[in-house]
Structure formats: C-alpha cells, structure tokens
Amino acid sequence: MLLISQTINGQNSLVGDGFGGRLWYKPYNYTVGSYSAYSICDSDRQLLGWGSNQFGQLGIGTNIGSPMPTIIPGMNRVYYFSTGYLMGAIREDRSGWVWGNAAGNLPTKVIDNVTFVDAGINICAFVKSDGSVFSVGANYHGQFGNGAKSWMASLIPSQMKNIHGAVRTAQGQYTTCVLLDDGTVWCAGSDIGGGLGNGISDTSTHLEPIQVNVLSNIIDIKANTISNLALDEFGDVWIWGTNLATNSNAPTPVKIDSLHDIVAISGCNDGTHFMALDEEGICYSFGGNMFGQCGQSITTFSVGVKDVSDHVVDIMAGETFSYLIKDDGSLWASGTTLGSSSNSIWLNLIDSPRYVFTKIDPNIDSFALCQPSEYTFPTDIVNLSGEDIPIFFPNAFSPNEDGLNSIYRAIQSSKNLKIEHYHLSIYNRWGNLLFHTHAIDQGWDGKYRNVTQPIETYFYMATYNLPGKSTRVIKGDLVLIR
Tell me: the pLDDT tens digits for 148-188? Predict the structure, then answer.
C-alpha cells in the first residue's frame, strides 16, 4: 500500500505537497477556529460554519452566532481554508479570500495564484505558487516581514522579504513563521516570549525574517498565542516560545521528549494548547486547559503531555474547545462554548462544558452536514472537450546516466499550450517527499539528497492550470529501473 495522501482541503494542514503530515495522515473535512467550527460536505464544496461570530468569522454579514451550521456566502468550490478571528480561504481557481477580524463580516477576495493560507488573530498569510509569502491584516509587530510595522489594518497583500520556496506559514500572536521547501523555518515579528526562536526573549523585533537555526528537516509548523511548534520528517516535535509541555520558557526550539513517531500536529491562534497524533492513532494534548480544551478531565492553566484518546485519525485544536475524528468516522469534542448557547459548537448535544472528549453527531438532517471523511481536492483530468491532453507522465524511467530516459519529467503534447501554476511532487512508498519543482522542464534524477534511490515503485502528483480553467491534477505510479 502506498502511504501518501493527495492534495487535501481541511483542518490547518495540507498534505500532498510533502508538508503538513507524515505517513498515513490525511486531514478531514471538519476543523475548528477559536470559538467556531467548520465543515465542507456537499459536491459543490460549500463551506459552512457554526458557533460564535463576534468577529464576523462565520462570514454571514452579521456578528450573530449560530449553533446551526450556516452557509458562508460565496465560499463554494473551496480548495482550502484556515481559521482564526481573521479567516482565510482559497477557492478552486486559486484565489485567496479573507473575512472576520480586520476584514469585515463577509468574504473578500484579496489575492490570486495562492496555494496555502494560514489565519490568526489579526493576520492572514498566503503562500503563492512561486513560493513567495504575502500577508494582509494588522502588521502591529512586524509579522508581515516586509521591513515595517503598521497600526493600520490593510487588505492589500504585502510581500515578506527574502523568502523563496515557501510551502506554509504559521500565525502567532507576535510572529509569522514560514516553512521553506528545504525544511528550514524562518520567522518575523517580535521576540516577546521567545517566539522568533533565536535565543532571545524580549520586546525587540525583526522586521524581516530570520532563520530558526536549530530546526531542519521540518515538514509542518503550527503556532498559538504563546508558542510555536514544528514537526520533523522523523516524527519528532520541537517547540519554542513557551514550552507548553513543561510550562517553561524556550527562546530556542527544544525537542519534546515525550512525543515520538508523530504524524500530525495542530494548534490555533488565539489558543494556548497543542494536539499531536502518533503513528498508532493516539492523540496527545498539552498546554492551556482553562476551558477543558485539552480533554484531560480537569481545567487548569497548563497541563503536561498526556494521551487523551485512541483510534484517532485527525486532530483540531481550537481556543476554548477541540475536535477530533476517530477511525470509525465519528466526531468528538472537549471544552467550552464561548458565551451563550446560541454560540454552541456541540451540534446535537445540549450546550454544556465537557472536559473529556465526548462524541457528537453532525449527521442530522436539519444540520445539512455529513459524517467526517477524508477531503480530497477535486481532480479535473477528464478530457471531455476533445482537446489534446497538454501533459502526461511516463510510468517508468532509468536514471543510469546513459542519457536515455534518465530524468523523470512531464512530457508536453504541444509547446503551444500555456501551462500555468505547474507543480510536480514525487514520493516514495512511505509518503516521504523526494523531489518537487515548479518548472515544467525540470525533473527528478532518481536521487534524494544526493543519494541514489533504490529500484522500486514511487508515486507522482502534478497540478497545473490552463489559462482560464480550473486546476487539473495528474497522479500515478512510476517505476525506477536501471
């Protein structure tokens, strides 16, 4: 079995680009924000939200919350979304949208050609298809990394300086951290609490991103109000800012010794806790637990790392509550609704604080929801128009340096067709990313970090656009022979 996921909508992780998770992990179609929850269920990929709406995060034109799932206007054909006081989404045409705090209570388009988004309290950062990073919102602490600070919120995207090859970002209270495709992490903003990971914990700022030197081989990053988290390709987890595993200061990243073989991490700004999921499906939580959001049977400011559930396939850490999904497709929650029952996130259950993970049922007719499921980005590779298929991929190649079929790359049926937003990724059977490129004339030479890879079957996935058309996906197996 090939342990690799496709490009996915969901949660605040994106798998299929080689980043955002390990091994079997695939995000599902439910997620949580600070005080609200979201899902996509129907064939039109319409985004729905429920819970609190004091910042306009439900995107319905008012600030009135709803315990019933509510359609977010204009947010159909959604490719990916991220939650916070300020919300962000990417639609199928790769346009970027925001709503909520600092952006109004209806979705507004702000950018094009984007592949990833991470939202927070005041800032929403987008990664473009060329690996650059652009942010909107309130750049109070220099989190934009554009060389300046501003006390005025703006929906005009501003580019982070000196960043190339970005694959994802993580929004903290005072920082924006960026993961590059070489596995390094860079952060901009304030050193308050040690959030830049440079060994300093004061009020100084870096208005341009600096590298977090301790970290390498990173595949995912997350942030909450007081901490940053990173997952490396070996399944180890690193934390800086406040070490929420021990409730101590960590101005330089430290490894969390009690976490091993982790496949996914989750966090939310303005939350104060994290969740982690290991290879065996065990969910761990740690950090702020004032509302019972860690699911550890108690309420206290901070708790250590503890396993809170098993048979888990996805994790969603919010601010005052958390969701998780088990391998039977059931949805579970722990924590507290903010305010009145009109803001409930408990769906079919009576609104009441719960301090252990409790099963809830979204599959009620009046909810217009569905059981949680893996959410796969829609493919568009069926040739219905009779036009030539513009690119295709061979099922084998031979990198033996004889100059014949020694590079694995796309084959174009016509040089006259314009290919846009091209991205090719190649994985081994364990789901590890071995090669990726945005250049259609570049390909894989059969090596990973200069080491020749063995004769076996690999997996490729390519995404691209033709002008004026939706994103297309090609995927399949390839055999390396010599």
Answer: 998 889 999 999 999 998 989 999 999 999 999 889 999 99
Same domain? For 341 and 425 the reply is: no
Q: Are both 177 and 221 inside the same structural domain?
A: yes
Six-digit token pair at 179?
């993961």
DSSP symbol at 367: G
Name the 3-class secondary structure at 396.
Answer: strand
Dihedral over alpha carbons 161, 88, 190, 257 (to 10 degrees): -110
Mean of pLDDT values over 270-290: 95
Per the structure block, which two tokens stand in for 299?
Answer: 């309420």
In DSSP notation, 235-298 reads S-EEEEEEETTTTEEEEEEEE-TT--SEEEEEE-TT--EEEEEETTS-EEEEEEETTSTT-SSS
Q: CATH number, domain at 416?
A: 2.60.40
Last residue of a domain, one of 367, 400, 415: 367
Total number of domains constituting the chain: 2
User: What confidence score (pLDDT) does residue 389 get?
Assistant: 62
Tell me the whole-structure pTM to 2 decimals: 0.80
